[in-house]
């Protein structure tokens, strides 16, 4: 058996490679798919920038963006007010939405890969609950931390929650650490939610502010939020991207992955840390925006297969486009009022989640 490479694991991998839609896309096909995703993101960004009462035109926006290139001088035709709206209000919000959506979708794909569960979520290990608790502590403390302290407290809360989850799961999991880590995440999330509920009941005058944060928002103060989260997002995306081939190996199981030279526990810790870093960073400024990490990677997987070489970059590009368009809906559905973006993503994601469960009930 060893000489022919015909063991059960090898047969399983050959079947996976030969199965239609399993991720074996030609180089030309990958190029075309990625180009289409880039165009989709560009269209979403343009729609996001143009949406609103300021009267910006496609020609004016495109020319104004070109005018920002060093050495290029073009009269865009925008007034000074329109120029300020474009660069200080519209673009920061749209770029922040793209960064948040890309990070949540990429983190979702990474979590689903390391835990071999297509329904895993960036908030799986308690990031959302920890961030929510941290934000609640900052909000109810009032002047003690101030408004600027909310993102910091949310970021720290998310990181601490996942660290507690991983330590607990690894400490008691043994050979089944992968499953126990997920169960530990449920326990940590339940504890954080209980503490958060207690704080809200004791400080009911802050309930509106807490719920506004929990339901998500892409409101920005210029480029500050983008500048704050971008370094963390770049690091997280780079680490996850460098492990795209390793994630394909992890799909065959820990035992077979180890026989191929991969250290499953070390890879899992690295990817969980990277995905958590990026997720905690973006939710600290956007609030909790659910379902992006499930909807986008799983929809891509249904179309191009599970291979992470294509799944990860597509998740990044289409996750960005998805959240930018969701924000457009949030801004226009009840104009001039604005829906929390978490409501929009939940309205899209919940039916999709049920559809996935129905389609895959025999396999999940």
TrEMBL record:
Its main location: membrane. The chain crosses the membrane at residues 32-56, 94-111, 123-144, 150-168, 180-199, 222-242, 269-298, 310-330, 337-357. It is a multi-pass membrane protein. CDD domains: TM_ABC_iron-siderophores_like. Keywords: Cell membrane, Membrane, Transmembrane, Transmembrane helix, Transport. It is found in: Cell membrane. This is FecCD family ABC transporter permease. The lineage of its organism: Bacteria, Bacillati, Actinomycetota, Actinomycetes, Mycobacteriales.
């Amino acid at each position: 058996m060893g000489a022919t490479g015909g063991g059960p694991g090898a047969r399983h991998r050959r079947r996976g490679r030969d199965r239609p839609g399993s991720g074996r896309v030609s180089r030309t096909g990958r190029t075309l798919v990625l180009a289409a995703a880039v165009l989709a993101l560009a269209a979403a960004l343009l729609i996001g920038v143009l949406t609103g009462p300021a009267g910006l035109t496609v020609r004016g926006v495109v020319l104004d963006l070109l005018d920002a290139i060093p050495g290029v001088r073009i009269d865009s035709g925008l007034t000074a007010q329109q120029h300020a709206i474009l660069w200080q209000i519209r673009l920061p919000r749209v770029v922040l939405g793209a960064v948040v959506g890309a990070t949540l979708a990429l983190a979702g794909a990474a979590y689903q890969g390391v835990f071999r569960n297509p329904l895993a979520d960036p908030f799986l290990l308690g990031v959302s609950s920890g961030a929510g608790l941290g934000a609640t502590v900052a909000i109810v403390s009032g002047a003690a931390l101030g408004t600027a302290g909310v993102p910091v407290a949310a970021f720290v809360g998310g990181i601490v929650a996942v660290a507690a989850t991983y330590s607990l799961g690894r400490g008691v999991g043994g050979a089944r650490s992968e499953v126990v880590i997920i169960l530990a995440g449920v326990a940590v999330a339940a504890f954080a939610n209980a503490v958060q509920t207690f704080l809200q009941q004791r400080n009911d005058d802050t309930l509106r502010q807490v719920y506004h944060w929990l339901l998500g928002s892409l409101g920005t103060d210029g480029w500050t939020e983008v500048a704050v989260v971008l370094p963390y997002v770049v690091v997280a995306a780079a680490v996850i991207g460098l492990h795209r081939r390793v994630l394909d190996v992890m799909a065959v199981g820990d035992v077979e992955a180890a026989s191929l030279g991969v250290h499953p526990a070390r890879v899992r810790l690295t990817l969980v840390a990277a995905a958590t870093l990026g997720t905690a960073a973006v939710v600290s400024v956007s609030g909790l925006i659910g379902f992006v990490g499930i909807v986008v990677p799983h929809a891509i997987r249904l179309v191009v297969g599970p291979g992470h070489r294509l799944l990860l970059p597509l998740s990044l590009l289409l996750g960005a486009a998805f959240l930018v368009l969701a924000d457009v809906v949030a801004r226009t559905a009840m104009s001039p009022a604005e829906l929390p973006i978490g409501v929009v993503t939940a309205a899209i994601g919940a039916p999709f989640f049920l559809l996935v469960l129905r389609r895959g009930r025999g396999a999940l």
